[in-house]
Specification:
mainly beta, 6 strands, six-stranded antiparallel beta sheet
């Protein structure tokens, strides 16, 4: 289960942290507030392909961090894009390889 997501300099989002509880979680806000960007960030940290414009216009890097909690483990995942649009991924602070040459991340898999 996704417990928390931290997003910095991602598309229109300057900085946001959202915590999630078991059960139904609802994102609300005005048009243009960034709800879809939060969903996109969740998809990216789970392995979806990023568009080239993920970095906020006035920034050099964009970061999406997530904390996932299972029955027996808690996992922290982080993906960062720099000015060259090259993604860098970590799981529990250990580097995770991206599939060359496309730069498409294949996703995280946790085994107990």
């Amino acid at each position: 289960m996704l417990r928390e997501i931290r997003i910095r300099n991602f598309a229109v989002i300057d900085s946001v942290t959202a915590s999630f509880s078991p059960g139904l979680n609802v994102l609300t806000g005005e048009t243009g507030a960034g709800k879809s960007m939060v969903i996109d960030a969740i998809l990216l940290v789970r392995g979806a392909r990023a568009q080239t414009d993920v970095i906020r216009g006035d920034s050099e890097t964009a970061t999406v961090e997530a904390v996932f909690e299972g029955e027996r483990a808690q996992i922290e995942a982080c993906i960062e894009w720099n000015a060259s649009r090259q993604p860098h991924a970590k799981v529990d602070r250990a580097d995770v390889a991206w599939e060359a040459p496309t730069g498409e991340f294949t996703g995280f898999e946790v085994r107990h």
